[in-house]
# Entry
Amino acid sequence: MDEQINGVRLHFTDTGTYTAAHAFPNVPTFVFLHYFGGSSLSWQPLIDRLSPRYRCIALDMRGFGDSEAPATGYAVADYADDVAALIEHFHLTDFTLVGHSMGGKVAMAYAARQPAGLRELILIAPSPLSPEPISDDERQYAVEAYGQRAAAEQTLRTITARPLPAELQARVMDDNLRSSQAAWRAWLEHGSREDLSTLLPQISVPVLILSGEADKTIKPDVIQREVAARLSSTWRVQMIMLPDAAHLLPLESPDAVADAIRHFVNPQPNRYPAGSVRALLTTDLVTPQTRRALTERLENTERLESPATSSLPVAPQLFTPAEFDTLRAICARLLPNAQDLHIDLAAQLDARLQIGKGNGWRYDVLPPDQEAHQRGLQAVDETAYALYELSFAALDIWQQDAVLRTVQSGAPPGATWKTLPAKRYFEELLAELAECYYSDPTAQETIGYVGMADAAGWSAIGLNQLEAWEPRHNIETIPNISAASLPTRQIASDQAAPPMRHYTLDEVVDAVVIGTGAGGAPLMARLAAAGMRVVALEAGKFWKPQSEFATDERAQSALYWNDERLSAGTDATAFGNNNSGVGVGGSTLHYTAYTPRAHADDLRLHSEFGVGVDWPLSYADLKPYYDELERYLGVSGPAAYPWNDDAARPSYPLAPLPLNGAAQLMQRGCEPLGIRTSPAPNAALSARYYQPGVGWREACTNRGFCQAGCSVGAKASMDVTFIPNAIQDGAEVRAECFVTQFVRDSSGQITHVVYIKEGVEYRQACRTVFLCAGAVETPRLLLINGLANSSGQVGKNFMAHVGLQIWGQFHEDVRPYKGIPGGLISEDTHRPKGVDFAGGYLLQSIGVMPVTYASQLVRGRLLWGEPLQDHMLGYNHTAGINILGECLPYPGNYLELSNEHDARGLPKPRIHFSYGENERRLESHADLLMRAIWSNAGAREVWAFHRSAHIIGTCRMGSHSADAVVNPDGRSFDIPNLYIADNSIFPSALSVNPALTIMALSLRTADRFIEHAKQGNM
Ligand SMILES: Cc1cc2nc3c(=O)[nH]c(=O)nc-3n(C[C@H](O)[C@H](O)[C@H](O)COP(=O)(O)OP(=O)(O)OC[C@H]3O[C@@H](n4cnc5c(N)ncnc54)[C@H](O)[C@@H]3O)c2cc1C
Ligand code: SF4
# Structure
């Protein structure tokens, strides 16, 4: 390609396959500057090795290769100006400069300007910034050698340690002979003699220097003395000598050069030897339930190595042999087994589909899972036939990759694709395979994940901190540790269903509460404490966290609401683990427990911005409940919260939780931008805490698994807080009871709640119903029963926080599995100035478990094969920031009943969700800001995961029956003895996490109800 850059026509190449510049503008980019007499083509062997993962831009420097050769302008500074203009031309924000010999001097001169976005400098046999040490005779000979083939051949012999392949020799010769005379002379007579050595201390980025042991042109000791030793301002200089190579390293030893570069720019991969997890499992570092879960998976993997004893099917159960062959071949390309691994992804997918187990949602544009995969595999084969006239399995790997890339691109040939969206199907298949692969302990070893060894928790959780026992990289064995050296822990209770009062079905209880999450549990406890007879009906089971919650994402997936929801719209939101839970405690079983309060202005969105709606109550109505909840739950937080706008607010009862690696990095990145940060308020205990009626709850052990269940009892989920209190005060919690219907009398009041337990239908008599099933199941139940919808608002106004995440990888050891996932917060963007959107957002640091990370990575970037596995090697160096941003209600975002039915025969819900202009603008603002934060913190491989979080709205609270489902007390306008208390009643999304506000509303609804009851107004 040619472009007019810095007033000169410059030629360059721009290579990168999956990273195709246009799709990922911020993908890490190498910019290559060649040696004297070379061209962009001199880099080809290296580019072949790096471009599968990186974008590679190689320049013909002015006067060389195909670039223009002006008469003048060949000082080192002129070349550096060209580089600056090239970077500007491509808008590069994350790049590494690679300079060879003369290109090395130019690269150093440019790097000394400290340009934004330059991450590292790679110098290959660099000409020093001081004058190049050659004699006048040598110089004169070189000047006169211009354009002479014999001299060029002699030079080639001198600067290489052994002969290059003929094709490369020809390239070197050709480049030499087409150099312009102006550039040739200028370098020899001026550029190489310029003394710019005072620039060296101004280079502040990490520098890798490669030198050939046999280099006689610029000898290693010269490079060591004149370059390496004088780089005084950078924190990282590494010099590597390559054996059997001289001056033309990128052509002589491309593999070694590529490896050295990869290792330098990538965070050190933490890889543990095969058998590490098995060794860990024999220690007391692992809880019994984690050991059970992982041992079972390991045994399945091992059986696959000797299929005679395999418990997994050797032959497919669901797929035809032909489909299975295709699937196996696809798996081998998308997620090839790393060395010595035997994970049979195809068999796992076949087995999963055979038993019909889902993950809680699917894109509405795809058919049900079984059908999608059967048709998808057939369609991949059709594409293979269309492109190569062979089945996919019969193709060679290059052809298979080409087929997969065509499918990924979204417009592959093949009749089946006309009714099956290729891109979405590809994403689904890839995500499923990535989740299976990285759930396997043997794959986890390859990325250095030992998060499962958390029986004692973690104390070394900051950047570059490891426990005394924790394996360093490349160790051979894992040390054992005795039980005596571990701190003992106890939690208050670990009974599945504690003893409780029971009510008969005919007994007309005061309240039936449907759902025991953040909305149901607080009011249940309040009503029981007021002496009311309360029965809670909960679809999920009573868990025994201490003995059942494993540190294993797959084992813990039973905590998520896994009944299938259909997700539609241009920004279709993910359900399953992303959104709601099932079990006594609801979604709080796997929430992160961030508990910021809503601000007064959050409740007045319409008054402030003229969009959305105001809440029919104010901060003053919620304040006493916020105060009460923070004390009751034991929220840990800073002594003075920087964004507090309530002068009368009590301080948090507990000191903040310690900051993990991600939090420290976010702090580092925010400081130079003047963004204030603070340890987040979090309902996980930083110290033991006495809970009246429950006993002592133990402090958080930093095991970082909050989003898949806290086995310690430190996190204030409802099962260890309000629910035990409610039971002590006489409430009955009936687990595994799924509510389906309501019986009403002639006046329209509900008299019975109908539910199913173990396939049998029951009816509980009641005076009042509190529907707290969450923002999907609550409207779904109402729509199925045709209830409480005179306003037409049931299911409407669905909202989900804009939840953009920006991930980066760092040189430091981050270990994202340690510490509460969200340690640091900033609300400086609550109402940002000079923006083009309504509302605002908050910023939070985030840690992440490996399966979740892999799944997001493939959905977000569609990485597969080597680039995916390469990226995952940096898992231990990964940190994220996410936002929670305002989301406006739109008519097009709503929940409806679909025509598909679930196993109970009930219609599945379909949720439509698309961002409006406001969400897009807010997201763009946050995207730029978070990238700037990560840039300041030193991140590499920065990428964005577009997502939405939390399910909000669908049964709006308001002052008027015409446009709301419930009044400010949570009472239905249509059915006086029906209340709703959950995420569905929020009129607007708030720019903070919702759980504390849901609980506050729940307590308020209970108090209002009790007040009315006292007045005989029940
Ligand atoms: C991974 C994750 C992290 C989160 N992190 C945070 C955070 O850090 N801070 C924060 O504020 N919020 C967070 N949230 C959100 C927060 O957990 C939810 O907003 C909140 O728990 C929702 O409360 P709810 O009462 O509306 O619904 P839920 O808590 O989901 O409770 C609904 C309950 O109803 C039951 N149910 C549903 N249908 C029926 C039926 N037909 N019959 C019987 N029972 C039924 C369900 O099993 C469930 O137990 C997070 C959520 C997730 C998933
Ligand atoms: S609160 Fe979270 S980090 Fe703390 S012990 Fe529980 S799961 Fe681990």
Remarks:
- The CA atoms of residues 955 and 985 lie 5 Å apart.
- The mean pLDDT is 92.
- The chain is about 30% helix and 15% strand.
- The radius of gyration is 32 Å.
